[in-house]
Amino acid sequence: MPETTAMKPLLLSLSLALFMGASASFSGADNFHRVAERESFLNLVQDRALTRLGIRLQVTEDGQIRGRAFGRQVTGGWRWQSGYFCRDLFVGGDELGANCQMVQVKGNTIRFTSDRGQGAFADLRIR
Predict the structure, then answer these.
(1) Are strands 109-113 and 94-106 parallel, antiparallel or unpaired?
(2) For residues 87 and 19, is the Cβ–Cβ distance under 8 A?
(3) Residue 114 backbone dihedrals phi, psi, to 5 degrees
(4) What CATH number is associated with residue 49?
């Protein structure tokens, strides 16, 4: 079936759900530790890949996000604001929009929780 204008919001929502892992947010942090400083975040991700089945991203010191998700190019930008990772993201030609996310870490797993820690989360491996 050809993609119609009416289907675009549905496809964009599906892309976002897949990218975020469609995981529910839980009150327990499962021994994850909050990353509240930009420098601590950069120490975790600089010169490394963030991966998950079908996703491979790089977050650079100069505020860029690039990689692939589910066979589509991912681009965007980020900034650290008031203890949160704030990003603008594009998957393929679709804009996922801006979102500030709480960052937590446990071992080689980094967790991004949307809506300043109140929304869905995605766990990625630091490689």
Answers:
(1) antiparallel
(2) no
(3) -65, 170
(4) 2.40.128
Q: What is the pLDDT of residue 29?
A: 56
Q: What is the Cα–Cα distance from 35 to 102, expressed in whole angstroms?
A: 8
Contacts of 70 (CB under 8 A, 6+ apart): 15, 18, 19, 54, 55, 91
What pTM does this model have? 0.79
- The total number of structural domains in the chain stands at 1
- Domain of 104 in residue numbering reads as 5-126
Kindly state the helix (H) or strand (E) to which residue 33 belongs, with its residue range: strand 33-35
How far, in Å, CA of 120 to CA of 72, rounded? Answer: 21
Radius of gyration, CA atoms only, the chain? 14
DSSP H/E element including 75? strand 72-81
Under 8 Å between Cβ of 85 and 100: yes
